[in-house]
Automatic annotation (TrEMBL):
InterPro entries associated with the record: ARM-type_fold, Beta-prop_Vps41, Clathrin_H-chain/VPS_repeat, TPR-like_helical_dom_sf, Vps41, Vps41/Vps8, WD40/YVTN_repeat-like_dom_sf, WD40_repeat_dom_sf
Family: Belongs to the VPS41 family.
Species of the source: Drosophila arizonae
Membrane topology: Peripheral membrane protein
Annotated region (Disordered), positions in chain: 1-21
Alphabetized UniProt keyword annotations: Cytoplasmic vesicle, Endosome, Golgi apparatus, Lysosome, Protein transport, Transport
Composition skew (Polar residues), residue ranges: 1-11
PROSITE patterns cross-referenced by the UniProt entry: CHCR
Domain Vps41 beta-propeller: 24-357
Cellular compartment(s): Endosome membrane; Late endosome membrane; Early endosome membrane; Lysosome membrane
Role description: Plays a role in vesicle-mediated protein trafficking to lysosomal compartments including the endocytic membrane transport pathways.
The protein, known as: Vacuolar protein sorting-associated protein 41 homolog
CHCR repeats by residue range: 551-705
Length: 835
């Protein structure tokens, strides 16, 4: 074959999307080109083994499918040719015999490779159609010739031809198509189907005569798509007929043939029909000739159209305009369409050109889709058995997407098709580098151990994010495993490209990278600069308690509660380390030691706490002094004296034994007489009371308070005696009355208590006497400790009586020496000896 023939789709305007073609076209060349240079094709026959063409000069040529001449009986001498144009050619199924006819009135039956059954008939009239028996077993014993009648010729045993007229014809036979026992043929009126078995016609299908033309001026195109389906294309009408057997009702009439022709679909086309052939279920391939002419009144390009038909309707699936040699000069009858149905190959035959239309194969479809940037469809086709690798299509698709700047879609496609192929990933990623669009592919890069790319690839992605999208850079640092790239190289890149406007993102990135590298101290410093509380989670996760010793103050500044939760755990960090670091910030030290004192019973730092409480929270100082014994009292007293904390001084002086000094502070500095009285009561020292009484007499307004407070501790007379004559004492009368009432009440209480005591004594004595007078039960097994005999004998009264002691020992009266128990006396002597 020669070069590929381009075809133009007529499915829409140039602005509409070009439809995918159904056919690919190739022009037949080789020896055929030489033939067409000197002659014109008038008819053809397409066989799976070869091609046969009849020409205007009456020659018949046998060629292979590539257009090369094949030696046969057709090419030997002039006797197998006609004197004028060949009208029709037919070939038997085996491809052994060829029948031709012409306007010279001759019909030739020629064996291609044998002359045994050759026939040369002359009718003396135009012969437009001839047909060989399609039965394989026939051996060309029968053939049909059409002129002004339809005649069947059969070869007898004597090898003579026996003609049988099948049917008379209205005018002339224009076309014949033979399938099995049915023969379809066309006349000037329409199309008939003849049943060779029943030897009858199944009826006439009349054809509409075109306006301003005669029906016989158009070739009738007949083709059997199967044993029972006849395709008819004539003028601009297509009819699909099914030959079926009549049902029982229809067959009841004996005058009707056994089969009937049912037209199942009839529709018109927008063009004249030059040939038709089956394609698929309910689809036809139709060669068409445009009805309208070009602006210069010449013929337009022929059409190859795929039509899908239904009941009396049709739809054009696709239409291709074909550029054939000399098409402007041709008429509708100059074209024909042959086919090899099994191979889905269709031959468009023109006087000076023959083109083969083949259904687009999978690979052809893929190539066309790629050329028209329909990559998704191309990949779908590849998945159904194309020899073109899908990866090839996918990579072309990626290139296309990058070209049209659909970078995100290109990245998604990489994920979809590259799988775990490391080499392919690295090759495709470098395409994104050129576009500076690594950011788009970053989310789809493989990061698992199954397909880990070169570290340089991930670093390039990070550098691009660092340059154009710092927030995205931080997200990648969080998402990607650190083993994918060189962390130190990325850290250096951050330092080289540090920008203050992105300080927070960059510092957090550095913190993460430092932690990935195991440099936790640097990571903590980054978090602290950020004031990011994730630092505490980092400390907990990696147990960085040894690292934080120099970062204690920044941690407290960031979050005191969470910092102290770590610092107060002695198993994680020693208090001595914390205290040492907090020396430079006394307030933080106070917070820490105060919190530590609440959870620890050790008083290591109590001496420090005294000064800190005195400075930051005096309300806690006195309770602390009272409950702790782990501070130096003299130092604490010095601090309290310096700060003039008198209640604390009183407590400390009291602990030191300087109670007089403490009392003087209460009286002269605090000036709280109630506190002085309570202090004296607490220590109950006579000298303290004397000092208090002495001071009270100097201040008349407090005398009554002293009188009220010393009850039960000091004789009030001492106070009264200290009062000078004529001295005015506020509320003295009330205090004296209250004091006397108190003494009277106390006397009554003593008297009642004495009565209760006497009553209780006598009641107890009576109970003891009653108990002593009660009878005592003595068992027979009791033995006298003195004589070791039973104290009583059954049914016999003791002769001299018994003596029973409260200790439980029982003696015979005549065994008693004194009024004491010998046994108890022995134990008493033993105890005394031990002492």
């Amino acid at each position: 074959m020669a070069d590929t023939l381009p075809a133009n789709s007529d499915s829409g305007t140039d602005e509409e999307e070009e439809m995918e073609p159904k056919f690919k076209y190739q022009r037949i060349g080789n020896d055929l080109s030489n033939i067409l240079n000197t002659d014109v094709v008038t008819c053809s026959a397409i066989h799976p083994k070869f091609l046969i063409f009849g020409t205007f000069r009456g020659r018949v040529y046998l060629l292979d499918h590539q257009g090369n001449s094949v030696d046969s009986n057709l090419s030997n001498g002039d006797r197998h040719t006609h004197t004028v144009a060949v009208n029709h050619i037919d070939v038997d199924p085996k491809g052994e015999y060829v029948a031709t006819c012409s306007d010279d009135g001759r019909v030739n039956i020629t064996g291609l490779f044998s002359c045994e059954n050759n026939q040369n008939l002359s009718f003396g009239k135009f012969i437009k159609a001839v047909a060989l028996d399609p039965e394989v077993k026939s051996g060309v014993r029968r053939f049909i010739v059409g002129d002004d009648k339809l005649t069947l010729y059969e070869r007898t045993l004597l090898k003579k031809l026996k003609p049988s007229e099948l049917c008379s014809v209205e005018g002339n036979v224009l076309a014949i198509c033979w399938q099995g026992k049915f023969v379809a043929w066309a006349s000037h009126l329409g199309v008939r189907v003849y049943d060779l078995s029943e030897k009858c016609s199944l009826g006439l299908m009349k054809w509409e005569v075109p306006a301003e033309a005669r029906l016989e001026n158009f070739r009738c195109h007949l083709r059997w798509s199967n044993a029972n389906t006849l395709l008819i294309g004539w003028v601009d009408t297509i009819r699909i007929c099914v030959i079926r057997k009549r049902n029982s009702i229809e067959a009841s009439s004996s005058n009707l043939p056994g089969f009937v022709v049912d037209p199942i679909s009839t529709f018109q086309t927008t063009f004249y029909i030059c040939g038709l052939a089956p394609l698929a279920a309910s689809q036809l391939v139709v060669l068409g000739y445009r009805k309208d002419r070009s602006p210069n009144y010449k013929a337009q390009r022929p059409l190859l159209c795929v039509i899908e038909y239904k009941m009396n309707t049709s739809e054009e699936v696709c239409t291709d305009s074909l550029t054939l040699r000399g098409f402007e000069e041709y008429t509708v009858n100059d074209y024909s369409l042959g086919c090899i149905i099994e191979e889905n190959r269709y031959y468009i035959v023109a006087p000076k050109d023959i083109v083969v239309a083949s259904l687009i194969e999978t690979d052809d479809r893929v190539e066309w889709l790629i050329e028209h940037n329909k990559f998704e469809e191309a990949m779908e086709v590849c998945s159904h058995g194309s020899t073109i690798p899908m990866l090839y299509v996918a990579r072309r698709y990626i290139n296309h997407l990058l070209t049209i700047k659909q970078y995100e879609d290109a990245a998604k496609l990489c994920l979809r098709v590259l799988g775990n192929n490391k080499a392919l990933w690295e090759e495709e990623v470098f395409k994104f580098v050129k576009c500076q669009q690594l950011r788009c592919v970053s989310a789809y890069l493989p990061t698992s151990d199954d397909c880990k790319l070169d570290p340089h690839v991930y670093e390039m992605v990070l550098y691009e994010f660092l340059k154009f999208d710092v927030h995205g850079f931080l997200n990648l640092i969080k998402e990607w495993p650190p083993k994918l790239y060189d962390g130190l190289a990325v850290i250096n890149a951050i330092h080289d490209h540090f920008r203050k406007q992105n300080a927070n993102e960059l510092l957090e990135s550095l913190a993460l990278l430092y932690s990935y590298q195991g440099d936790y101290e640097s990571a903590l410093r980054m978090y602290l600069k950020l004031q990011n509380k994730d630092v505490f989670e980092l400390i907990r996760r990696f147990e960085l308690y040894d690292v934080i010793s120099k970062l204690i103050i920044p941690l407290i500044q960031l979050d005191r509660e969470r910092a102290f939760k770590i610092l107060l755990d002695k198993n994680k960090i020693k208090p001595e380390v914390v205290v040492h670091q907090l020396e430079q910030n006394q307030e933080y030290l106070y917070w820490y030691l105060d919190a530590l004192d609440k959870i620890s019973s050790q008083g290591t730092f109590h001496n420090r706490l005294v000064a800190l409480y005195a400075k930051y929270d005096r309300t806690k100082l006195l309770p602390f002094l009272r409950r702790s014994n782990d501070y130096v009292i003299q130092e604490a007293l010095a601090i309290c004296k310096r700060e003039e904390f008198y209640p604390e001084m009183v407590y400390l002086l009291g602990r030191m034994g300087s109670i007089v000094e403490a009392l003087n502070i209460i009286i002269h500095s605090i000036k709280d007489i109630e506190m002085a009285i309570e202090f004296c009561k607490e220590h109950n020292d006579e000298d303290l009371w004397n000092i208090l009484i002495e001071e009270s007499t100097k201040q008349p307004e407090i005398v009554t308070k002293v009188l009220d407070g010393i009850v039960d501790y000091v004789d009030p007379v001492l106070v009264v005696n200290k009062i000078k004559l004529g001295q005015t004492i506020p509320n003295l009368h009330q205090s004296v009355v209250q004091m006397l009432w108190h003494y009277n009440l106390e006397e009554q209480v003593h008297e009642i208590a004495h009565k209760i005591q006497l009553t209780d004594y006598f009641d107890t004595h009576a109970e003891v006497v009653a108990m002593q007078r009660r009878g005592r039960q003595v068992s027979y097994d009791k033995v006298c400790p003195k004589c070791s005999r039973p104290v009583i004998v059954k049914d016999t009264a003791p002769p001299n009586g018994l003596t029973i002691f409260n200790c439980g020992h029982i003696y015979h009266n005549n065994c008693m020496i004194d009024d004491r128990c010998d046994q108890c006396l022995d134990w008493d002597s033993i105890l005394e000896d031990d002492d």
